[in-house]
Description:
Helices cover 0% and strands 52% of the residues of chain A. By secondary structure, chain A is mostly beta strands. In chain A, the strands form three sheets. In chain A, strands 2, 5, 6, 10, 11 and 12 form a six-stranded mixed β-sheet that branches. Chain A has a four-stranded antiparallel β-sheet with strand order 3-9-8-7, with no helix packed on it. By secondary structure, chain B is mainly β. Chain B has one helix and eleven strands. Chain B has one helix spanning 104-107; strands at residues 4-7, 10-13, 19-25, 32-38, 44-51, 57-58, 67-73, 76-81, 90-97, 111-112, 116-120. In chain B, the strands form two sheets. In chain B, strands 2, 4, 5, 6, 9, 10 and 11 form a seven-stranded mixed β-sheet that branches. Chain B is globular, with a radius of gyration of 14 Å. The A-B interface holds A 33, 37, 42-47, 50, 52, 89, 91, 95, 97, 103-110, 112 and B 32, 34, 38, 41-46, 49, 91, 93, 95, 97, 104-105, 108-112, 114-115.
Amino acid sequence: AQTVTQSQPEMSVQEAETVTLSCTYDTSESDYYLFWYKQPPSRQMILVIRQEAYKQQNATENRFSVNFQKAAKSFSLKISDSQLGDAAMYFCAYMSGGGTSYGKLTFGQGTILTVHP
Amino acid sequence: GAVVSQHPSRVICKSGTSVKIECRSLDFQATTMFWYRQFPKKSLMLMATSNEGSKATYEQGVEKDKFLINHASLTLSTLTVTSAHPEDSSFYICSAKPPGTSGRPHQETQYFGPGTRLLVL
């Protein structure tokens, strides 16, 4: 079974600064997808960024970018120019690319991000 | 963007009663929907996978007779918590996945509902 580990229960950053959230995963599969989701106090899950394992290029979405190290099974999220609205719980998630587990998301434990003005 | 709704947003019920939670994909057809449970400040735990027109697939440790799932149409899945007890109090979240298309990237994205907070007294 796949596992996802977020080793940082809490992180904090000053507004306008940069912060990196860590995520590692364990899998024997070659085809999979990785996601970062954001869950603000409203508890609505919001997709932040998505990475296909077959793509070597790191995904980028505006101020959000990932550092995808496939060999190391690492998938960190970098938030640049942090804003107060970025404060939330962030979840790293894994999804198999096929087989019986296709479509099922396995989530990490989550990292609570606090943004200080 | 794709929108998923859940109803009710919060519900309080007495122990022993049953509660039904609806999950709807508003602007796309969802052949597959997923139900998650989340405790405060904890991660989401997958409970079951709901496929339209077939029986749900439950994760290990989830009581299928306790948590009844019905996916009667391409836009609606329901979760019924039967004979609810205080330990069933939790935040329940559904997600929906559009069917596959010729372009791979977006078919893997799941869209989440806003969640339902259940409190059993």
